[in-house]
Design a protein that fits this description.
Nucleotidyltransferase, domain 5, alpha/beta, 50% helix, 5-stranded mixed sheet, single chain
Amino acid sequence: MEKVFVYVDGRARNGPGEAGIGIAITDKDGNVLEEVSRLIGRTTSEVAEYRALIEGCRRAHAYSPQSAIFFVANQNLANEVNGLFGTRQPHLRHLVEVAKALLNEFPQWRVNLIDSDANRLALRLVEQAFHSRIQAQMTRERLELRLLARASRLTDEEMEELIAYAERLQGKG
């Protein structure tokens, strides 16, 4: 493949807090080749942005492009990766080194700073990761409430059977 465009973003809620990454890889015609929307655990937004760039590099390598152009909305990240200045934060140095090593595996690469609005595809994917987590939590809570409502009407013997059944289910997994 001649060229890929990689839009990356990472965000944390209540930094540090639960964080997610969003990555969209497109070809030169704007066709979406791949999207990534994933929670990455508890961290800061800055670390999440670097982790998104690193994951974006890994995913883009699969397309073996001659040129890879990365779009980020964080000026510090763009400046640090492009070598305009070094990071002052020791915990980010390793991430900068990993990102640069992956970027240098491309024949040609650039990391461009763009406005957050222009990076909305990646931001939408980050938000989708958070939304999916909330939806899963709500579904789980509804199931637990249904189970409690039904269990409250069981006799002691039926409750013992239910517990035994649940233990058998857990033993299968």
